[in-house]
Structure formats: C-alpha cells, structure tokens
Amino acid sequence: MILYLSPKLDTSMKGFLFFFFSLLPIGVFSQQDARVQNAANVIDKAIQLSKVDIDSSVFYLNQAKAEAKTLANDSLIVKCYLQESRMLVEKGHFEQAETVLHQALKLNVPEHIVGRIWKNLGVVQYYKSQFQEALDLYLKAADIFQNTKRLKLLVDTYCDIGNVNAVLKNYEKATQYLEKALAIHKTNDIVQLRIVYNLAVLYYDLKRYSKFIATTHVAKTLAEQHNSKRILSGIYTNLSNYYTDIKPDALLAIDCGKKSLQLKKQLHLAQALPYSYNNVGYSYLKQKSYKKAIQYLDSALQQATPASKVIIFNNLKDAYAGVNNLKKALFYAEAKDRLKDSITETAQKEKVVALIEQYESEKKQHEIEVLHTKNTLQALKISQQYYWLGAVLVLSMLVLAIGYFSFRSFKTKQQLDKIILQQQLLKSQLNPHFLFNALQSIQNFIHKNDKEKSSAYLTNYAKLIRLVLENSDQNTVTVHDDKLALIAYLELQQLTHNNSFSYEVTVADAVVEDFDSLPPLITQPFVENAVLHGVKTVVNGEIHVAYYKENKALCVAITDNGKGFVSHKHEEQRLHKSMSMQIIKKQFEILQKTSKTFKGAMEIDQSNGTKVLLKFTNS
Fold first, then answer.
1. 237 neighbors 219 (Cβ within 8 angstroms)
2. pTM of the predicted protein model
3. pLDDT tens digits along 559-588
4. What is the pLDDT of residue 400?
5. DSSP state of 187
6. How far apart (Å, rounded) are the C-alpha atoms in residues 122 and 350?
7. 532 pLDDT higher than 90
8. What is the DSSP letter of 192?
9. Antiparallel, parallel or unpaired: β 477-478 and 517-518
10. Distant-in-sequence, close-in-space partners of 38: CB < 8 Å, separation ≥ 6
11. How many helices (H) and strands (E) does the chain have?
12. How far apart are CA 547 and CA 506, in angstroms?
C-alpha cells in the first residue's frame, strides 16, 4: 500500500509579485499599480474558490486574465495560465492544459516562473500516463529551480521525480531524489511527513528493513503531530505487513492491522477496507487462529474487487483447511481458480480486441493514404503533365507509405497470432478430461476422510491451475516456475494412474532457477505424452525431466522408458493431438521471428524409449 506523493500543480507566484512590488518607491502607486494589485487579488480569490466552487473560480479567473492582458502584464497572465491549467487537468482536459502552458512559455517572465511552467507540463504528462515524458519535464524544471535557488519549488519537484521513478519501479532513483528532498527540506510539516513516509515504503521495496523501521517511526511521530489519519493508516498497514512477512510477530501484526482498519473506518475509506480486513485475517492465519481469520476474511469479501477476491479466496481456502473443513477449502479453491480464469480470459479478450481494432484502424488508414495518393497522382497527371519529377516523388512516397503500413499491419497480425497461440496452448494445457479425473480422485480421498492426501493433492491441483494461467500470459517463464508446474502435473497424473510410474525432476547446478528462462507452456505437452503414450503400458514406468546447461544453451531433456510413439499409425495421430505438435512448432516459429536473441530448437530420439530435447539460447 504505497502512498506516493501526488504531483502538484504550481499556481502560486507570491514570491515573484512581492519582489515586483518591492521595487516600487513607497507612496508612488499610480492607477496602473492599483489595477495590477486588483488583478492579483482576483487571481488569489479564483485560486481559493477552486477548492469549493469551480464555476465561480473560472468566472473570476477569466476576469483577471482579461485585465492582465489589457495591462500587458506577462507575470499576471502566466499566473492565470498556471491556475487555468490546474483546473483543466482536474477536469481531464489534458490537451487544453498543454496548449495553455505552451502559450505561457511564449511570454517574458523570470527563469524560475518558466521552471513552474515546465513543472506543470510534467504534471499534465503524468496524468496522461506518459511517465517518461513527465520525468524529462520535471528534471528540466529541477535544473532551473536549482540554478535560481528556489528551494521550496526544488523540494516539490524532487518529490515529483521520486514519485514518477517509483511508478516506473526505479526504486533506487526514487529513493535518491526523495533523500535529496529531505536533505533540503528541514521543516517538520506535512511535506516532510509525506517525504519520510514514501522513503519508508521505498526502503521496504528495496529490502532495507532497518532503514524502513527507523524511517517509519519518524513518519509515525510526524503523522501523530499533524493528526494525519490517512498516512497513519498506511503506516500501520506497512508495519502489519512487516511483522507478518519479514519479522514474524503475530501480536504486533494483528495490533497494527486493527489500528489501520479502525482509521480507515473513521476516514470512510470503503474501497480500502477489504484490503485491511484481509491483512488482519492473513495475520491471524499465520498465527493459526483459523476461526478469527475466517471472520475477518469474510468481512473482506464485502466490496472487494475481483482481483482482491482472488487473494481473499486463497486465504479462506487455507483457513478452512486449517479447521479441517475440506469441503469449504475445496469450494474456495475452485472459486479462486474460476475467478482467476475469468480475469485472465477477460484480459486476453481485451488484448485480442485491442489488436484487432489497431489492425483495422491501420488498415483503413492505409487505404485512405493509398486513395489520397492515387487521387493526387491523377490530378497531377491531368493538370500538370510537365511536372513528371513531382509525380515520381509522390509515387516514391506512395511506395514508402504502402511499405510502412504493410509492415505495421504485419507486426500487428504477428502479435495477434501470438495471443491466439497462447490461448490454444492454454486450452491444450488445461485438458478437461484430466482435470475432471484429478478432481474426482481428490473427492474420493475427501469421502474417505484421508485428510493428508486430499490436502496435498488439492494443493497440487490449485498450484497447477495457478501456474498454467499465470504463465500463459508471459513471454518467458523461469525454470523454477516451469519445474513447479511439471511437478504438480506429475503428482496429479500419479494420482489418476494409481502410482503406476515414478518420476524425477532435476536441475543442474549451472542453471539459475530464478533467472534462466524458457517459453511458457512448452514442456508440459511432452511430459503429458510420456505419461499417456510412453509409460502407460510399461511396468515400473519411469519419467525423467532434467534442466541443464550445454555451452550457453538452456536444455530440457524429457525421457521415458516406454515403447516410443511411431509403432502404429493411430498412435501417431493420438500423439499429434496429445502433444499439440502443430502448436508447439508454431510457437517455435513465432519465437524465431519475434526475438532477435532468443532461439529455440527441438530434437526427438526414440532409440531407447523416448527422449525429447529442447534447447533455448538467449545471446
């Protein structure tokens, strides 16, 4: 729960106006001076009203802007533009806000005011989710504030830079800029509180836990001084997570979680309550106080989003398993899997729709460009016979345009093919017949009251579904995740085949499980073939899966002591369907086309049983 600093639009110019008026001799205020002062007062009134009555604020701001333009006072005009841009951003009119700020850049104002304009342009890009552009603009503004010694503005901008880096997950850089801001800003005010709080969160993300604890206590003291309940609720949530996962202390974790929950209730933060209830429930779960965990987790389900329900369902599954209510545990395991499957399917559909829309849009644009160019060529041919050179140039542009849009359409179609292939692989992984048999076997153990086996196989079933769904959306998966999915799959196959075979999965020392990677959903079809067609009719069947390095290539060898798979024509057809060979080959083809560095190869040896060797290089 990271409370990152929101970017602030700068509307204040009091320092500059004070400097402007201090240059005037005392008692020499003309009618012009009075009009300038009156316009400045109207702008201040518009700024104050913007917090409570936006329509009245716009009315006064337009009055002040008209007066400032009559006076030809660039400083007042820019102050109006800064306030106007802030209100446009709040309404979501980002393009208009950019236009206003670019108009402000054309006026003659001191350098630090220019810095404020760049800063506000950075805010506009931030709200448009153009984070790299926002970062560049903030850095430009920071250089100006540093050169002009505007420390308060520099602190605000450093906070904005830290915020953007945190969003981009550049935690080291985010920490550096917030530490710079803290070094400059020494006042114990709400700004320092936000800086210290966000630093604590970043230290947690960077696993610098001693700094996290020290900084969190400083933030807690400041939050109590300023009665900032919102930040205090975040602090207690972070402490609850720390005492749950990093330095287990069940009593402290529960106490902090309840304090966070109480503060959020006082603040009427209904959307945040499910997370707080879940955190307290999870703390009780870790303490093995399963009944209390269930009470809080049930409360967490109210108003929970689908994504958070997946986490809550998983915790409820573990809690009911803890009280030996395996029927409820199975119910929540299946509910979690269904919901996660639904979320994944929705995300996949959205991607496909977006790609199709992009493809159709580019296709139409391509047709428009071609038609426009043809019309241009026809007009040139009729009216300007002697300008053949121009026609050649236009024709060249047409060829380039056709080539460009054809290339774009090809890339978009390639992405679409990749998404469709991932869906086909996912369907081949989640074989309905296999899943039904596995669930039926688990149900038999439950009826027999065999708690140990039913719990173990239920865990493997949930793990397999989770890993397959998560991995299907990735370009690559780690050896660790691939290995876990295969082990869960083989455990369930042993269950459905009455342990008629044994298996072994090994990882060589040269393989770094958490960093070495391979394409997702590619090894399991070969293991499935080994089970269904390799060792099915063999006494003491054996399946071996080995991950190892050969030169710089990651190798996966899948071997069995079965009879091979080309003895009969109908067996070849079954293999073709079981292994989804066309899909696997298509995945290799797409891998070769879309990646310049990541290559894959496949070899099959049937001289003694069956051995499938997959090789992946990433140079």
1. no
2. 0.53
3. 998 876 554 444 444 443 444 566 677 767
4. 80
5. S
6. 30
7. no
8. H
9. antiparallel
10. 67
11. 24, 7
12. 6
